[in-house]
Design brief:
heterodimer; A: alpha+beta; Butyryl-Coa Dehydrogenase, subunit A, domain 1; Butyryl-CoA Dehydrogenase, subunit A, domain 2; Butyryl-CoA Dehydrogenase, subunit A, domain 3; four-stranded mixed β-sheet; B: about 350 residues; four-stranded antiparallel β-sheet; about 50% helix
Chain lengths: ~375, ~350
Amino acid sequence: MTTFANLTPPKLPEGSARLREDLRAFLAESRRALGWTPNSNFIGVFSAEFSRALGARGYIGLTWPKDYGGQARSALERYIVTEELLAAGAPCAAHWVADRQSGPLLLRFGTDAQRRDILPRIARGECYFSIGMSEPDAGSDLAAVRTRAIRTVQGWRIDGAKVWTSNAHVNHYAIVLCRTGPAGESRHEGLSQFLVDLKTDGVRVNPILNLLGDHEFNEMVFDGIEIPADRLIGNEGEGWNQVRSELAFERSGPERFFGTFHLLLATVEAARERGDGAAERAIGRLVAHFLSLRSLSLAVAGMLQDGRDPGVAAALVKDLGARFELDVLEVARDLLPGPPSRPEPGAAENLDDALGRAILQVPSYSLRGGTPEIMRSIIARELGLR
Amino acid sequence: MNSGGELAAAAAERLFADLATPAIARAAEQGQWPSRLWQAVQDAGFGNALEADSGVSLSEALAIMRAAGRHAAPIPLAETMLARALAAGAGLMPPDGPLTIGVTGKPGSLSVENRLLSGGLTRVPFARHVKAVAAVARSGDQAVIVLVSVEVARLVPGRNLAGEPRDDLGFEKSELLAGGFAMAPRGTDEAWLLRMAALLRGAQMVGAMEAALAMSVRYANERSQFGRPIGRFQAIQHQLAALGGEVAASAAMIDAAAEAVSVEAMHAPRAVAAAKARVSEAAGHAATIAHRVHGAIGFTQEYAVQGLTRRLLSWRDEFGAEADWQRHLGRDILRPEAGAVWPLLSAP
């Protein structure tokens, strides 16, 4: 119960303002040099060039130990970096998942050899990851995964398929949740996670076009692929706990309410021109909600910093964040010129198509990382309801 | 909340749990002053919490208000804290006992000439029960702090939805209390008083919401329908989860605003405006969900949840409803000279 009442945003550490300024300067310079334009979907625009430049400045793997290529800085500093990247709409798709959850998962559960092999490359912005959780028959019910890993003489053989795998067609690795033993009564036993090189023979990646007509996610098929024994992550059979920890990282960041941020900025400009009381009130309400989400999200970063489990708090932010993103849409529909048109598939986000893009994109925001219904069930359990 | 805040909160929680019972609230609504409760609050020094030399931080004072809100304490504690802070800051010595504040938000409602007060205050909390009203008035253009007895005012009694006294006061060349006049310190004006009142009421509302949540969860686990506790139904679980989200967002906003005010951050006024806007909006959802979960029993006088929900439905409109603070915030952000939005939102 205390989780709900005491999500106090922590004080930002010394040097935060400097970090923010440095990052803003880097982003402005990078925008000029690489010619990117702001986009709202953190997983939408893939730029290895940008990710390498970001990594070279030490902004990826910020909280990891220096031995593994990190900067040993705090989760709160990482929060600042994350929100600045989102506010700038930087092209982060290449490194985002690796930095947010794959790296931290390996840091927590991986072998030293895995960490030494992978983490420095992620931190340099050179090594990109996909999430291998959902399957055709295992969406919200993740324990229903059917992809199987069987021990062989040399290692493991994996058969099965994963879906909704963002950027598997351009990424290097996926962390794949597999069934390795009987499910048990809880259905949470007998699951394990594997580090799969997407260049492995027998991995097929088939595009799935999304609502906008863009190719962002995929189906990944594992046709009896053979992987070495040392690609098991953590312990065999511990996959459920590990994947819950990975999901907590996945849900914990400010991207859970930044999905319509650039639309909000455009709407504020429109309201400045409109200048009536209704517009003032609508913008004021959105700003109050945005600030409350930011406070909660900072509190989550504080929990990560203190080594506490942010799972429930992250679920709260995600549920509230998904509602906020929809609220922004409604105000934007009122204040921006309309009606909206479908953006050209593959085109870069721009001011004219921002509303149409957001309307078609928003259904995915509430789903990825877990549906609002799953979030609410997590919250209800914490409240003592079951 | 810092550890000191937790200490004050624990002491306040014990005091209010013992003395601010639903029976006391019911008697208060019938017009009875809760003297034992007030005496205990005064002995604990809670009324002085916001004076500069009280040794109590703002976050501790807000923790005390949150505990008062959890138990729907029918006393002018936020008002007394602010009246004493206002007086002490201006070097005035108010009388002992419960006090209240006259919150106008902007200059124009109260003026002083030759130490005589004229003007009107509406919906003054607990006015009929207090020794004095503290307010910001104007003497010419100059902001001044005044202390005035309720006895010299024309009092028109009123009540909020929870039955708490909210009286209108009219002054016509009314005498101030002896020593009840001073220049306002720098930065203390009508807008400051409104912001501080909104922050304290906001903390009280967070307390009432967390208590309504706890009561609703308890009820959902006890009440059986269709052969099982209603808390096993996903529809109920998700309603209560939504209420949990409102409580969490509200509490975080009050904490963030308190921090901004404590360090006198540039963005403190915006943080308070956003906090009361968010908390007042949450209060309506909270009351709706608490009543939905409780069903018909929650609609009765005898069941305690109404003591919380009626206060939430009243307090959300006091010291600025969400609509007022949303407009205020919107105007602030939309000023042409406000510049780029992200630097405003990411302060500090």
